[in-house]
Amino acid sequence: MPRPASVKLTEGTFNFTPQFTIGIEGPESEKLTAAVNRFYSQIGKRTGIYFPQEYITPTNKNPGAQLVVSFQKAVLPQIGMDESYHIAVTHQNITLTATTDIGAIRGLETLYQLIMQNGSGYYCPVAEISDYPRFKWRGLMIDAARHFIPIEVLKRNIEAMAIVKMNVLHLHLSDDEGFRVESKVYPKLQQLGSNGQFYTQDQIKDLVNFAHERGIIVIPEFDLPGHSTSLLAAYPFLASYPANYRPAKRYKMDTVKNLNMMKLMKIINQSPLPTIDPTKESTYIFFDHFIAEMSTLFPDQYFHVGADENNGVAWDQNPAIVAFMKANNIKNTNELQAYFVKRMYAIAKKHNKQLIGWEEAYNQDLPSDVIIEKWKPSVNDTLTNHIIHHGNPVIVSNGYYLDLSLPAYIQYLSDPVHANVSKTDADKGITGGEAALWGELANSDNEEIKAWPRAAAVAEGMWSAPNVTDVDDMYRRLWSVDYELNNRAIGGNYNYEKILSTWINSNDIAPIKTLTDVCVPVKGYRRLMNVMLTPANLQSNLASPLSGIADVAYCDSKTRWQFRQLIGAYLAKHDTTDLNKIKDQLIQWQDNNFKFTRLAKNSPYLQQIQELSIRLSSIASIGLTAINTPNNSEALLKQFQQYQAPLFEVQFAILPEIEALITGKLKAEPVTYTMF
Q1: Beta pairing class for 6-15 and 217-224
Q2: Is 328:373 a contact under the CB 8 Å cutoff?
Q3: Which whole number is the average pLDDT over 141-161?
Q4: Which one-letter DSSP state was computed for residue 227?
Q5: How far apart are CA 356 and CA 77, in angstroms?
Q6: Alpha-helical regions (H) of 298-357
Q7: Which residues have a Cβ under 8 Å from the Cβ of 622 and sit 6 or more positions away?
C-alpha cells in the first residue's frame, strides 16, 4: 500500500540469507544512503538475520551485491519531482532502478512490503514492478495549534508518511488556541501566544531535515486574518478591535443561556471574532518581517496563509476599517479579504514563496499562481471548475477530514477529482490532496490513533490508479500495513493500550480492550457539536484530558472487519467452521462483562461506561439467540433496536453484522454518513 501501477508476479522466490548485501550505483545522495541503511537495518531486525555490511555507501563498490539500487540524479524534495521506480526480483538478485534518489526511496518502501515469510525463512516473490504516483501532491495536515503536538510525534508521523509514499507535511501552526513556532524577530509570539508550548527554531530545522531525508516537504500554515487570537495576544496592535487577548478557544459560549444549535450558528456568523486589521500598513510591515524569518526555517517553496472562516463582522464594526473600505472603493468585507490576500501574496512572492490559501482565499482578481485548498463539502461542486479555469492550482482536502471519524473506506472512495470536473480540467488544475486532522479533539496522546491507519487509505487514493477501489482488498492490505506502521513508525497501538491502562492503573486491560475494540466514535461533527453545546463541556480548555473511550476508539475496528468477513462467508455458504468461529466470538463478547465488572470495582471511569459493557453482552446474546432460534427474528429485531443509539459518544461497530444474523442478510456499507 499504495498499490503499484504495474505488478507482474511469477513463480519462485528470492530468499534472504546471511550473505545478503546491497550496492548503490549513482551520484552522491545522503538521502538515499541513509534510506538504504535504514532499509538494511529494518530487514535485519525483521528477519533476525545478521547481515555482513556495517554501513553501505556508493563509494564502497559491491559488484556481487544481491540488491542493487541505481539512480541517475539526486534532487531536492519538491512537488513534481520524479518519484517513479522499477523493481525486478529474480531467484538470484533484486534490482531497484529510478531516475531520482527519491524515486529509489519510494521503491525501497515497496520492496520492504514485498518481504514475506514461511516456515523456511524470509523471501520476496519473484516479481517485476513499475510504479509512479497519480498525483504529485499527497499530503497530511496536522493541527499543532489547537493542541500542541510534540516534535517526536511529528517525526513518527513523517516516518509513517514515508512508508505510504506521502510527500507533503502541512503543519497548522497558529490558531486562536496557540502560536507554535519560536520567532526571534517577534519573541512575544511564543512568550504570550503559546502557553509555553512551541517549537524552537532548532527543532523546526531538524524536523524539516528529517522530512527531507524521506522525500517529504514541510509547509507551514499561519492562519490569517481570522483564527488569530494567539497572535493578537502577543501583538494586539494588529487587531481589528481592542480586547484582552489570550490564547483560547475561538467561540466564547460559557455565558450564553440555553445554548442550542441556532444560537451557536448565530455566534459563529454574527459575532465579531479576533481578526487582523488589514487596513494598516503596520500589519504588512509586521508580516513582511515575519515571513522573512519563517522562510529561513521552512525552505520549501510554499507558505500557507489560511484565509478561512472570517465572517468579517469585526471589520464591519470598526469605523476606521469601514472608512478605509469607502476610501478605496472596497464594497464589502469579501473584497477586503481579497485585498488582504493580495497583499500577503506580494509579501510571499518577495520571499520566493508560493502562497496557499483555503478556498475562501479565492477571488476573481487572485493571481493565478496562488494554490487553493478546497475543503468545503459540496454536492454539486462548481467552485473547483471556476478555480481551475482561472488558472489556480487546486489541492483537495474535502472528503479527507480525518477528524470527522469516518471509516477508512469513505475516504478511500472519495476521489480528488469531483464528478463535475472533466479529465482535462483535472489534469490541468488538480495537484493532489491532503488528509487533514484538525486538533479540537486530538492531542499528543491520541493524534496517531486518529490519523492512522486511515491516512494510509488516503495515501493510496492519491498515489494509485483511479480504478483501484476494491474496499475489501484495501482493508486486507490496510491491516497488514497498520502492523508495519506501528512497528516501524507510529505509536498508535501503544498509546491506545496506555490510555486503557490508565483507567485501571494496571496492564490487565484485556476485558477493556474486548469492549473498546468494537467501539467507534460517533461520526461527523456530532461529537464536536456536543463539546460546544453541552453545559458540562463549556468550561473545557486546552488542558482538558482527551482520554475517554471516544478519544481512544479507532475509527475502524479491525475486530469488526474480521467479524464481518466471517458473517459474509457464513451467510454465503453456511459453513460449520465459520459458524463455530462466529459463536466463539459472540460468547467472548457475551461473557466479557463479568471480567469488566470485576475491574470496574476499582475504576471510577469503568463504572461510568459500564453500560457499554452490559450492552455488548446483550448484543452478543441476541446474536447467539438468532443462530440458535432463527424463527424468532421479529422479536429479536425489536430487542436489537434499543442498542442502535450512541452512548458515551461511541457506537458499536458490529451492529450491522449482528443484524445480519437476525435477518440472514448482510447490508452493504453506507456510502455516506450524516455530519450532524
Answers
A1: unpaired
A2: no
A3: 98
A4: S
A5: 18
A6: 313-316, 319-327, 333-350
A7: 636, 639, 640, 658, 662
